[in-house]
Automatic annotation (TrEMBL), chain A:
One of its GO terms (molecular function) is GTPase activity. This is ADP-ribosylation factor-like protein 2. The keyword ATP-binding does not apply. The keyword Lipoprotein applies. Mg(2+) binds at residues 30, 47. SUPFAM superfamilies: P-loop containing nucleoside triphosphate hydrolases (SSF52540). InterPro entries: Arl2, ARL2/3, P-loop_NTPase, Small_GTP-bd, Small_GTPase_ARF/SAR. It comes from Laccaria bicolor (strain S238N-H82 / ATCC MYA-4686) (Bicoloured deceiver). Keywords: GTP-binding, Lipoprotein, Magnesium, Metal-binding, Myristate, Nucleotide-binding. It comes from the Eukaryota. GTP binds at residues 23-30, 69, 125-128. Belongs to the small GTPase superfamily. Arf family.
UniProtKB/TrEMBL annotation, chain B:
Residues 99-139 are annotated as: Disordered. PANTHER family: TUBULIN FOLDING COFACTOR C, TUBULIN-SPECIFIC CHAPERONE C. Keywords: Acetylation, Cytoplasm. Residues 131-283 form the C-CAP/cofactor C-like domain. GO terms for cellular component: cytoplasm. It comes from Laccaria bicolor (strain S238N-H82 / ATCC MYA-4686) (Bicoloured deceiver). Its main location: cytoplasm. GO terms for molecular function: tubulin binding. This is Predicted protein. It is found in: Cytoplasm. It holds the Pfam family TBCC. GO terms for biological process: post-chaperonin tubulin folding pathway; tubulin complex assembly. Supercomplex made of cofactors A to E. Cofactors A and D function by capturing and stabilizing tubulin in a quasi-native conformation. Cofactor E binds to the cofactor D-tubulin complex; interaction with cofactor C then causes the release of tubulin polypeptides that are committed to the native state. The lineage of its organism: Eukaryota, Fungi, Dikarya, Basidiomycota, Agaricomycotina. Belongs to the TBCC family.
Length: 197, 335
């Protein structure tokens, strides 16, 4: 494929990662990505299908896939599993009524062969909302501590204020990098770079 | 900041022809594979990988292509993806192929060896790198488990002027949280600002809500009227609901039946609603993703269907009953 070579040449020095954003609908996946990308976050319609965003994070190129979370779309999630380096599971921290649903979907994802080994970042989004659950409450509601198959971390954030988005992404990129490109995590810590936007 | 700021990328045109060539090639490989009765897993895997590469290629060109083109290509790829998925499905027994790109940390997952469990969270990272704590919010505003009641802001537990709200398990209730409704009570109340709305399991209810400064997520409503403004509207598993909406994006429904949409009634509109452009939204039915119109909802145009008398004053007993019956969709309504 000639084209790929052209593009590869452009990015030879860069290392790519493929990150999949999943979660129930209304969690804030699209909003987080737009915010990270410096785009306007008003007037986002629910995602019918998927969005792809590519941006640089430090010296990594992130290909981020944002797939719609409506129940009818969830069976299609597995079409996106191939070559996933990291899974970012986004939670609407104010959605107490669906935490059970959220937990089940997450745990069933983690049994997928094709996601084996992917790092897992759980974004406890919408922390700006008055009634949102804390990251600790969500960690327990989703029973994250029972997860032994994936490196995971829960991170409170807000797509509206932008709080903690970059640092969360930073954790996941470093975690993937330490697995794919380095033998030890220590070497990378020093060069953590947060410049996304 | 995008990686595509390589200014040398005036290659939209080159891209297009090469992209299309790759796409056609892949398409014909898929066609070839599906003409065999039982394709072996390897070719399907290869197809997936080719598709993933092509998708990556497209993603890489983001920002360097006209957005319309980009969209079209994405659609084309989605189409291919569907064909590959169809192949995969038709290819029972399922392939046990697991992608072998990295030494999976999970191969030893089933056995709870000390190694796999200790890698779940590297402890030093956890402490050193703990996210800066955000204010721990513990309260949560909810209106739940009532029947045959007229409910206003006074029925809410004490709350800040701005909060997200959940409404659940109501039967035969009118919920009126319009700004005018609270002035009757404690006088100088600042209007309640709702930053997100969750509603679940309501039957024979009327919700009169102001402009929500965020999204509305609604489940399991039956025979209800919902008046509301919001940024996003998602309704699931509901039937016979009349929705009066002021919205800046496209409302979506899923697993819903007999839904009627109208715009927010001018008579009830708070100024924040009136300031918006007159609503012209188009509903998306996620349960009916095709070209034909969805049978699950209709758009009403305001004039002939507007409820002329909204139940704005507190009522109880039979009067409440009558007010509800008068405006909620009737169980036997034929549409
Ligand atoms: N208050 C608040 N609202 C948010 C936040 N993130 C997303 N939202 C809202 O939640 C709704 C759903 O967001 P969207 O990105 O479409 O969710 P998705 O279905 O996961 O892609 C939108 O109305 C957003 O404005 C957040 O951090 N805080
Ligand atoms: Mg979305």
């Amino acid at each position: 494929m000639g084209l790929l070579t052209v593009i590869r040449k452009n990015r030879q020095k860069e290392k790519e990662m493929r990150i999949l954003f999943l979660g129930l609908d209304n969690a804030g996946k699209t909003t987080i990505l737009k915010k990270l990308n410096g785009e306007d976050i008003t007037g986002i319609s629910p995602t019918l299908g998927f969005n792809i965003k590519t941006f640089a994070h430090g010296h990594y190129t992130l290909n981020i896939w944002d797939v719609g979370g409506q129940r009818t779309l969830r069976p299609y999630w597995r079409n996106y599993f191939e070559q996933t380096d990291a899974l970012v599971w986004v939670v609407d921290s104010g959605d107490r009524m669906r935490m059970q649903d959220c937990k089940q979907e997450l745990h069933s994802l983690l049994t997928e062969d094709r996601l084996a080994g992917a790092s897992l970042l759980v974004f406890a989004n919408k922390q700006d909302l008055q009634g949102s659950m804390t990251d600790t409450e969500i960690r327990d509601a989703l029973d994250l501590r029972s997860i032994t198959t994936h490196h995971w971390k829960i991170w409170p954030c807000s797509a509206v204020t932008g709080e903690n988005l970059v640092s969360g992404l930073d954790w996941v990129v470093n975690d993937v990098a330490s697995r794919l490109y380095y033998s030890s995590t220590t070497s990378l810590r020093a060069e953590r770079s947060l410049a996304v936007i | 900041m995008s990686t595509s700021d390589d200014t040398t990328w005036s290659f939209s045109r080159t891209f297009t022809s090469q992209f299309q060539a790759s796409r056609y090639a892949l398409e014909s490989r898929i066609a070839a594979a599906s003409s065999k009765l039982s394709p072996s897993p390897e070719p399907i895997q290869e197809l997936s990988i080719s598709l993933a590469n092509l998708t990556k290629t497209l993603a890489g060109a983001t920002g360097s292509l006209p957005s319309y083109d980009q969209k079209q290509y994405e659609l084309q790829l989605k189409e291919l993806e569907r064909s590959i998925e169809a192949l995969r499905v038709s290819n029972v027994p399922k392939s046990k192929f697991a992608f072998k790109r990295r030494p999976a940390a999970s191969t030893n997952a089933e056995s709870p060896t000390s190694e796999s469990s200790s890698t779940a969270i590297p402890p030093p990272l956890q402490t050193k790198n703990a996210p800066p704590s955000l204010p721990a919010a513990s309260t949560h505003l909810s209106l739940s488990s009532h029947s045959h009641r007229y409910l206003t802001r006074e029925d809410l537990p004490s709350h800040p002027a701005q909060s997200d709200l959940s409404i659940s398990d109501l039967d035969h209730c009118i919920v009126n949280l319009l700004p005018s409704a609270s002035s009757s009570g404690s006088g100088t109340d600042t209007p309640l600002i709702i930053s997100a709305l969750h509603a679940r399991n309501l039957s024979d209810c009327v919700l009169l809500l102001p402009d929500v400064d965020g999204s509305a997520l609604i489940h399991d409503l039956e025979r209800c009227v919902v008046v509301l403004g919001c940024h996003q509207f998602r309704m699931h598993a509901s039937s016979k609901v009349d929705v009066y909406l002021s919205i800046t994006s496209n409302p979506i429904i899923e697993h819903c039946k007999e839904i009627r949409f109208s715009s927010y009634p001018a008579a009830l509109a708070p100024s924040s609603v009136l300031e918006k452009d007159p609503a012209s939204f188009s509903v998306q039915d996620f349960s009916h993703i095709r070209a034909t119109p969805s049978p699950n909802y209709v758009m009403k145009d305001g004039t002939d269907t507007d409820v002329c008398e909204w139940p704005l004053a507190t009522v109880s007993g039979e009067e409440l009953e009558r007010a509800i019956v008068r405006i909620v969709p009737h169980p036997s309504d034929q549409r």
